[in-house]
Design goal:
By secondary structure, the protein is of the alpha/beta class. The protein is built from 11 helices and 7 strands. Helix 9 links the parallel strand 6 and strand 7. Bound molecules: NADP nicotinamide-adenine-dinucleotide phosphate.
């Protein structure tokens, strides 16, 4: 029987006609969803104007709290929020780095700063009370949950050192949650006092490591994936109080953590990354399928969108490719460490 005859026998019977019509509808639905999603991605990334931070109290004497503020992406958040006219509370581990940064930001942008230094891996009550004491009388509207730690190099989960495992979970999860429990009530108070004429904003740093289950970075991957569910849940809870909550997803950015020094098409420097993150607040960019989530840098956005529209983030193929990539990064990292150790001996 030829293909034409087989097709005709299908179209001749009632069930065949219904099945074909159903398939057509599903096809049209999928193409429509894809087209709308792609158009929304392009609009978000390239057409819509940057988010105006006046709605979050910029140039109105309001404050932002930035964690992990002394380096990399966090330092850029601090600079760019100050440039928009928010006073900034700088939080991280090293007091002197924070003080130097505070002086630089104050003189450059003519705003006020406060610094709070603690080691977030310790999860001591005094960490959170120190932060609370500093911000309790400030009209805070913005919290950037940026502090985070990854594995020093990709490592099999069963060989992950206890300290590294504990630090990643404590910093990325426990400290982020507890800091939010300190700051969010103060944001809610500020918004209520202003009769919701300003809004609150809580941004937390996610990662492709959490978007895609990542073998050899399993603990980091799980911690960032946790932040996705937590942040989206919190977004629903805090919306009625006038607070926007958003997870910001990023692929690699040049920084001490990524150990990448040179920017490229897919790997921006912190300045360009943060510029896109702040410009795209409230929009999904590459995270079209996710509520209260944004993948703001354009190259990362297309990567996220492409993976979601093809193999999917939880697929076997994505997992295998990711595993192969991190296995090879581990081999290179171990070789480099051995080379450096040999050089030290000589
Ligand atoms: N870089 C990337 O490729 C990338 C990709 C995706 C997501 N992210 C996420 O983006 C965020 C920032 O990453 P980054 O690359 O900018 O990191 P980074 O350059 O290593 O900077 C980390 C910042 O966090 C602070 N910090 C580190 N450990 C701390 C601790 N135990 N207690 C208190 N503060 C601590 C550091 O303070 P000190 O200066 O005092 O050490 C520094 O200010 C992280 O959440 C990360 O997971 C990064």
């Amino acid at each position: 029987m030829s293909i034409y005859q087989s097709l005709q026998s299908v179209t001749d019977c009632k069930i065949g006609q219904i099945a074909l019509f159903g398939a057509l509808l599903v096809g049209v639905y999928k193409i429509t969803v894809f087209t709308l999603s792609l158009s929304s991605l392009v609009l978000d990334l390239f057409v819509l104007p940057a988010t105006d931070f006046k709605k979050y109290g910029a140039k109105k004497g309001k404050w932002a709290v930035v964690t992990g503020a002394s380096d990399g992406i966090g330092k850029e958040y601090a600079f760019q929020l100050a440039a928009k006219g928010l006073n900034v509370v700088l939080v991280s581990r090293t007091q002197d780095k924070l003080e130097i940064l505070a002086t630089e930001i104050e003189s450059k942008y003519k705003i006020e700063t406060r610094v709070v230094a603690f080691d977030a891996s310790t999860d001591e009550k005094s960490n959170y009370t120190a932060l609370e004491q500093v911000i309790t009388s400030l009209p805070v509207t913005v919290l950037i949950n940026n502090v985070g730690q990854s594995h020093s190099i990709p490592v099999p989960f069963l060989e992950t050192e206890e300290k590294e495992l504990n630090d990643i979970i404590t910093i990325n999860v426990t400290a982020t949650l507890k800091i939010t429990q300190v700051v969010a009530p103060i944001i809610a108070q500020t918004v209520a006092k202003e009769n919701k004429k300003v809004r609150g904003l809580i941004l937390s740093m996610g990662s492709f490591g959490g978007l895609l289950p990542t073998p050899y970075l399993a603990t980091y991957s799980g911690s960032k994936s946790f932040l996705q569910a937590w942040s989206s849940a919190l977004a629903g809870e805090l919306k009625p109080q006038g607070i926007d909550v958003e997870l910001v997803i990023s692929y690699l950015v040049t920084s001490a953590m990524s150990k990448i020094k040179h920017a490229s098409l897919a790997i921006p420097n912190p300045k360009n990354f943060v510029k896109s993150a702040l410009a795209g607040v409230g929009r999904r960019n590459g995270a079209q399928e996710r509520f209260a989530t944004s993948t703001p840098y354009w190259a990362h956005a297309f990567m996220h969108f492409g993976i979601d529209q093809t193999v999917g983030v939880y697929s076997k193929l994505a997992n295998k490719l990711n595993f192969d990539m991190h296995k090879s990064i581990r081999v290179r990292a171990l070789k480099k460490a051995a080379r450096l150790a040999a050089q030290k001996k000589d």
